């Protein structure tokens, strides 16, 4: 542990460390919080403050902090073989075993994994693989990928282009060509006078309209998060996925379901594709794959796509130095063992998720809250000025940021997306910890209301 005190660390941080997704001028003025250690669902900062981590790090620490088994798996693997590549006909035992273990929990028609180093890299792989697939099929025109406004698929050039975040697109002439966006299924924010069910159908039909507009010989794939995470835990209306499935059955395009957040138990199934009964061709994964203990990502690939690549042959000129990294793979394998042996997915489905959803539903009674929604261990709370009309506060994000800051001051991490508060706690969160999370959230909402004078 660092012997430097908080002020010295902050000064050094400001002098040398450029943070991701940060206004560097603003950060210099506000200073940083230094997170020093963690155990279970709790974090401690360098001032000794204990905080309940309602976001599982960045949606990734699924089995919770402090599991020595994962540290030991990394240690042993690093002593034995810290690194070797999977190029040039080589491979390594942990990567092989992890690919098999993932195939065992993936949907039945998906039996192969392409390893990457992160979720963003996984979506770069998706872009390359979709185009490679259609080239091999003799349909090279099918290059366009349809995505959604306010989706998130990472921060590399392909990831940010596939994503539908306008602020990201504005920086650097994105999206790159061949990626188009349709509206998102965000009923609370954009449903207007339609019922959720009507809006779900409408939003799904935007896919069909876009395919027809572009022409089926131009469209290679549709990519979506099963539940949009970074966009604000946006859960599509019940009608959405069935209508998307109806459309996909009509047109020959690939389905890419981005499981970077939802994969590895978040919804109470191994993958949200199983929760929504979807049959993807490609599933980008990361985060919960190693519970964040070491960086790793991948793309789970359907038999249909693999068979095409094997049948036609020819090198796929794509891969990363750290594809199938032995130490990350060893950690991933141990993470999966723990999830299976301790029945963590079953725990989410049968105990933690029903309890969390029941408890957070009560927050809808609060005068600032327009809607509470959730699936599994994902939750969102919409902060509004007027519950009846869904009217927002002026200056989008101001109230959300206030709420987020008060959360931290009260020992709770929740994230703000505009004025939507979101949560995604470790999957191992207990009932009493859920009680603590919801009690703190209510107390913070009161403090926000008080500061706003409402
Ligand atoms: N896809 C989704 C759905 C994500 O939520 C994220 C990260 N939040 C990514 C991709 C990108 O992952 P990474 O940050 O590991 O590159």
UniProtKB/TrEMBL annotation:
Keywords: Aminotransferase, Pyridoxal phosphate, Transferase. Pfam families: Aminotran_3. The keyword Transferase applies. CDD domains: OAT_like. It comes from the Bacteria. GO terms for cellular component: cytosol. InterPro entries: Aminotrans_3, Aminotrans_3_PPA_site, PyrdxlP-dep_Trfase, PyrdxlP-dep_Trfase_major, PyrdxlP-dep_Trfase_small. Its cofactor is pyridoxal 5'-phosphate. GO terms for molecular function: pyridoxal phosphate binding; transaminase activity. Belongs to the class-III pyridoxal-phosphate-dependent aminotransferase family. NCBIfam families: PRK06105.1 (NF004767), PRK07480.1 (NF005682). This is Aspartate aminotransferase family protein.
């Amino acid at each position: 542990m660092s012997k430097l005190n908080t002020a010295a660390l902050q000064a050094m941080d400001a002098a040398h460390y450029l943070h991701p997704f940060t206004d560097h001028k603003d950060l210099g003025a506000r200073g940083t919080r230094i997170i020093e250690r963690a155990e279970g669902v709790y974090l401690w900062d360098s001032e000794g403050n204990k905080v309940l981590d309602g976001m599982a790090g960045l949606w990734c620490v699924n089995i919770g902090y402090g599991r020595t088994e994962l540290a030991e798996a990394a240690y042993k693997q690093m002593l034995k073989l810290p690194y070797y590549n999977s190029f040039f006909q080589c491979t390594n035992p942990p990567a092989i075993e992890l690919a098999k273990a993932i195939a065992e929990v993936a949907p039945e028609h998906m039996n192969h994994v392409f390893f990457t180093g992160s979720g963003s890299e996984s979506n770069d792989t998706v872009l390359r693989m979709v185009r490679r697939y259609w080239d091999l099929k003799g349909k090279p025109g099918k290059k366009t990928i349809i995505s959604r406004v306010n989706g998130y698929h990472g921060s590399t050039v392909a990831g940010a282009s596939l994503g539908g975040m306008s602020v990201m697109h504005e920086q650097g002439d994105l999206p790159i060509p061949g990626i188009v966006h349709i509206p998102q299924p965000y009923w609370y924010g954009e449903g207007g006078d339609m019922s959720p069910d009507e809006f779900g159908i409408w939003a799904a039909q935007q896919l069909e309209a876009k395919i027809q507009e572009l022409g089926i010989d131009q469209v290679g794939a549709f990519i979506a998060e099963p539940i949009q995470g970074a966009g604000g835990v946006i859960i599509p209306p019940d009608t959405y996925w069935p209508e998307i499935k109806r459309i996909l059955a009509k047109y020959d395009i690939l389905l890419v379901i981005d499981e970077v957040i939802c994969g590895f138990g978040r919804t109470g199934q191994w993958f949200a594709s199983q929760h929504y009964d979807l049959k993807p061709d490609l599933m980008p994964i990361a985060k919960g794959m190693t519970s964040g203990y070491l960086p790793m990502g991948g793309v789970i690939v359907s038999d249909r796509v693999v068979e095409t690549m094997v049948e036609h042959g020819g090198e796929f000129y794509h891969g990363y130095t750290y594809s199938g990294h032995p130490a990350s793979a060893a950690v991933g394998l141990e993470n999966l063992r723990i999830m299976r042996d301790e029945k963590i997915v079953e725990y989410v489905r049968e105990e933690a998720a029903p309890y969390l959803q029941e408890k957070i539903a009560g927050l809808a009674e609060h005068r600032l809250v327009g809607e509470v929604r959730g699936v599994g261990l994902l939750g969102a709370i919409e902060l509004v000025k007027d519950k009846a009309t869904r009217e927002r506060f002026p200056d989008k994000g101001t109230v959300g940021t206030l709420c987020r800051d008060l959360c931290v001051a009260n020992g709770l991490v929740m994230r703000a997306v505009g004025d939507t508060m979101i949560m995604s706690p470790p999957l191992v969160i207990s009932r009493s910890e859920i009680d603590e999370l919801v009690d703190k959230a209510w107390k913070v909402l009161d403090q926000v209301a008080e500061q706003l004078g409402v």
